[in-house]
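Case 210 in the screening queue. Each case pairs one protein sequence with one candidate compound; here the compound is cobalt (II) ion. For every case the pipeline is the same: read the inputs, emit a complex structure as tokens, and attach any notable structural observations.

Predict complex for case 210.
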Amino acid sequence: MLNDLLLRNRAWSARRHAQEPDYFTRLAALQAPEFFWIGCSDSRVPANVVAGLDPGEVFVHRNVANIVHSSDMNLLSALEFAVDALKVREIILCGHYGCGGVKAATEDLPHGLADHWLEPIRRLARGYAVDLGRERDTEARRDRLAELNVIEGVRRICETPILQRAWRRGMKVRVHGLIYGLKDGLLRDLDCSIGPGHFQPPDFHQEAAQ
Ligand code: CO
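Case 210 output:
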């Protein structure tokens, strides 16, 4: 199995080199991606492939069910590097229909550590119970919950001090929420994009209304 993988890598490297002889030298010298992608670990949703992007074009962080935990040092480190060092223009949080993580969060079964990880999705499911109840069946409810998880995640990214500081410094970075369909290979825009000026933290110091 591993041998197969190494052979495929050699064939790919040779093909790439034949197409563009300075490809690897160029990429080794610099990465300057426009996009930072936060997606699900699911093997069927690889960022580069589904977005049609080459190596070097997208900086990637993936975790189970593409959850934005406000204290996830892994995600926050990648986010800070993407915004402050790489200066990406677009941050894409991408969920997908048929997500196993969302399914696990809505099952009444123990999943070990994943139950802690997936807690924000269960909280969303409780908060939106009435809306989700209007969906025709369990699969549709889970897919709607996957969308809500993305919309909530976009807001959480924008609430991080990393984005707040970047916008205060005048950076134009925008955050978008997409969802990918495993059945048709298409990305859909959830129309929840947030950019500079569209999101302000609550004004803690404002005077009480008279
Ligand atoms: Co998933």
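Case 210 observations:
- The pocket of cobalt (II) ion is lined by residues 40, 42, 65, 96, 99-101 (CB under 6 Å).
- The mean pLDDT is 94.
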